[in-house]
Write a structure and sequence with these properties.
Blueprint (H helix, E strand, L loop, with lengths): L5 H4 L41 H12 L3 H4 L2 H7 L2 H28 L6 H9 L1 H31 L11 H21 L1 H31 L15 H14 L16 H30 L2 H5 L4 H9 L6 H30 L10 E2 L6 H14 L5 H29 L12 H20 L1 H12 L1 H10 L5 H18 L1 E2 L7
Antiparallel strand pairs: 1-2
Helix pairs in contact: 2-9, 2-11, 2-14, 4-5, 4-10, 5-10, 5-11, 5-16, 5-17, 6-7, 6-16, 7-8, 7-14, 7-15, 7-16, 8-14, 8-15, 9-11, 9-14, 10-17, 14-15, 16-17, 16-18, 17-18
């Protein structure tokens, strides 16, 4: 008999070892007769996220500080406004293709962890761990730290209008931001999604104000900046502009990281992805159009915060609104990244590639509290570094390699396991296009900046000894097992967490 899809979507737990771990022996009994729906409840991640929550997670994670602060990054490498707009539109279409491929993978392999889970199922534990190592230990915590710092800078900008705010104050406020959102994510998934909803609406409101201003400007005939003058002829620079554009769309795959908490994922995942990417693409393009109705190419390239410069020209005394909206945007961005990053730790622990404590669920709140706390802790550690932007540049290409590998899983699984159930079937031309483009946008930066690429590769390679010592080596000495068991048991008692029940086939 052919295997069923369920045979491949169960999350295997860490192999049993000769250690004593607190486990949930029976379903939790609820004695509250007024709420029989909660009877026989089990300790596991609950599908609390609606379609609207899914849309706001994606939109809130994609739209951070970038569209407000540095659309000049694309313009710098294209030379002309019209070519920059082409790059923004093409980047949105490219992201849509990737998201379309992820919709099939997400509906077929319903495991928290997104591309980590897809690589695990398709290409094995080693490559999946390398992906997990880079993303969990470097990329996500650094990103949280950077977005939190951006939030801090704009949150205090009103109090320091003529100078840069004190560095220590900025870092302390960033730490407070991370700690508050860690508490929210530990307390209740509904709280976290509510924060995401509110701040996503705030950032969209800010962008719609800018877009409406742009439409008024177009009505006044302000179109002199829309031309092909000085378009860059160097193919390498055009490619680098796509790299900048695609970075601004980064986050379209974040909903796949929390798929176990999404209600009716087969129906809601593709809808949330489609609506979100189309919305973000339209908003990004129209926002850029609005900027260029007022600001010339030199003004955009010379501005560190394009939206603030635009506001000073157009809104006069009300220009302070934009820094406020940028702060709200980045606050929501930190929440979205923290929400999905913790699920990556959780997925890795469920697969036995992270400490088992990270796979455990808080018994009262039904949240992966240990995974949230370690995500926040690593982010706080990176706040101490002054070179995190360079670190992100070093490993930025690794993100595209891993996403390209995940999309490669789609045609590979079509060939290897055609019998698996696929609620959504993507035309194979789309993953082929995406894989080729991923190779292209990975190789071009390697040629353009070999030193940074070499350092980034070295950082990734640090995961190899970690894998073989802590993951692949199963026959550890008894005293090491006993020590790890004691630490795990103490943390379980401290945070009041237990392992989720093993899924049966």
């Amino acid at each position: 008999m052919s295997p069923k899809a369920e045979d491949y979507i169960s999350v295997p737990q860490k192999e049993a070892e000769t250690i004593s771990i607190l486990e949930l022996k029976e379903p939790v009994k609820n004695t509250d007769a007024e709420d029989p729906s909660k009877a026989n409840d089990t300790i596991e991640l609950k599908p609390k996220m609606t379609l609207l929550n899914g849309i706001t997670v994606i939109v809130g994670s994609i739209i951070g500080s970038g569209i407000f602060v540095s659309p000049g990054g694309v313009l710098k490498n294209t030379g002309s406004v019209n070519m920059a707009l082409v790059v923004w539109i093409t980047s949105g279409i490219f992201s849509m293709i990737g998201a379309y491929c992820y919709a099939e993978l997400g509906c077929m392999i319903k495991k928290t962890g997104a591309d980590y889970a897809y690589i695990m199922v398709t290409l094995g534990k080693f490559l999946a761990f390398i992906r997990l190592w880079v993303e969990c230990m470097i990329v996500r915590p650094c990103t949280v730290a950077i977005v939190a710092l951006t939030f801090s800078i704009y949150a205090v900008k009103y109090f320091f209008p003529e100078c840069e705010p004190p560095d220590d104050a900025v870092r302390i406020l960033a730490a407070v931001c991370i700690c508050i959102l860690a508490f929210v994510n530990c307390w209740d998934v509904s709280w976290a999604t509510a924060v995401q909803d509110i701040f996503t609406y705030a950032k969209l409101l800010a962008l719609f104000i800018i877009i409406a201003t742009g439409i008024v400007q177009l009505g006044r005939g302000k179109t002199e900046n829309f031309n092909w003058d000085d378009t860059e002829t160097d193919f390498t620079k055009i490619a680098l502009s796509f790299y900048s554009g695609l970075f601004a769309y980064n986050g379209w795959n974040y909903l796949n990281f929390v798929i176990e908490e999404l209600q009716d994922p087969v129906r809601n995942l593709p809808r949330a992805i489609g609506i979100s990417i189309i919305l973000v693409t339209v908003v990004y393009v129209l926002t850029n159009v609005a900027f260029y109705t007022t600001l010339s190419v030199p003004e955009v390239l010379g501005s560190e915060a394009v939206a603030v410069t635009f506001a000073k020209v157009m809104y006069g005394p009300m220009a302070f609104m934009i820094p406020v909206f940028v702060a709200m945007s980045t606050f929501g961005g930190v929440n979205g990244i923290l929400l999905t990053s913790s699920r990556l730790f959780y997925a890795g622990a469920c697969e036995g590639q992270m400490p088992e404590i990270f796979s455990m669920i808080q018994v009262d709140k039904m949240t992966p509290a240990p995974a949230v706390l370690v995500s926040a802790f690593l982010s706080l550690c990176y706040l101490c570094s002054s070179d995190i932007f360079s670190l992100i540049n070093y490993v930025g290409f690794a993100t595209w390699v891993s996403i390209g590998l995940a999309v490669f899983c789609l045609p590979y699984l079509r060939w290897k396991h055609p019998e698996w159930e696929r609620p959504i079937r993507v035309q194979l031309i789309f993953p082929i296009i995406y894989i080729i483009a991923s190779i292209f946008i990975t190789i071009v930066p390697m040629i353009a900046s070999p030193v940074e690429t070499g350092i980034g590769t070295a950082i990734i390679m640090t995961g190899i000894p970690v894998y073989f010592i802590f993951v692949a080596w199963k026959d550890k000495p008894a005293f090491i097992k006993k020590m790890l068991a004691s630490i795990t048991l103490a943390l379980q008692k401290l945070i009041v967490v237990v392992p989720p029940p093993k899924k049966t086939l």
